[in-house]
Amino acid sequence: MKSKYKNILTTVGNIKFHSKKEAKRYQELLLLQKAGEIKELELQYPFKIEIENKHICTYYCDFIYQDKHGNMIVEDVKGIRTSIYRLKKKLVEAYYGIKITEI
Prior knowledge:
This protein is an alpha+beta fold. Helices cover about 30% and strands about 40% of the residues. The strands form two sheets. A four-stranded mixed β-sheet has the order 3-4-5-6. The mean pLDDT is about 90.
């Protein structure tokens, strides 16, 4: 079955990624972590949006880590920027006061 956005599911080790591009970025981040340039790399970290105790949505970033200066970096590897993604990105950036870096 073909993917809607023509991405190719890719596995690195025992981790499945939604695209070759995301898998490649993971491998790059692993090298940076090994070199001590980043730390605390996590995948598919959830950001919950709740307003007045009502769950609105959950956004899962592809990667979150700390750079060598201790800054939290949130990344999303994108091929297609869907309208739902753009909305969730705006919500998360406003709600958490963060910047999502698109790769």
